[in-house]
Amino acid sequence: MKYLVCLVEEPSAKEMLKSPLPLLLPDSGSRSIAHYLKTDGSNLSHSFNVLLDGIRKKIL
């Protein structure tokens, strides 16, 4: 019985992180959703509202 072995080099963690990073950069992500985020607490994003609440508590 013979086996065919295919050796494929796995990408390093650094290489794996390169592909999604352009999606997370400020120019492509934050600025595109900025007009949807309001500071009055009327956002649907619970985590963003919690962030704003924490910032308000630190400032006041």
Characterise this structure.
The chain has 60 residues and is mainly alpha-helical. It is 47% helix and 0% strand. It is elongated and about 70 Å long. The model has no long low-confidence stretch (mean pLDDT 75).
Write the topology of this structure.
Elements: H1 13-18, H2 21-24, H3 30-33, H4 46-59
State the distance separating the first and last CA atoms: 74 Å
Estimated structural class = mainly alpha
Count every beta strand, where a strand is a DSSP E run of 2 or more residues: 0
The multimeric state of the shown protein is single chain
Total DSSP helices: 4
Q: Globular, elongated, flat, extended or rod-shaped: what is the shape? A: elongated
Average of pLDDT: 75
SS strand fraction: under 5%
Low-confidence stretches: none
Percentage of residues in helical conformation: 40-55%
Major sheet summary line: none
Q: Give the H and E element order.
A: HHHH
Radius of gyration, in Å, reads 21 Å
How would you summarize what this structure contains?
Helix content is 47%, strand content 0%. It has helices at 13-18, 21-24, 30-33, 46-59.
Task: Provide tags for this entry.
60 residues; mainly alpha; 47% helix
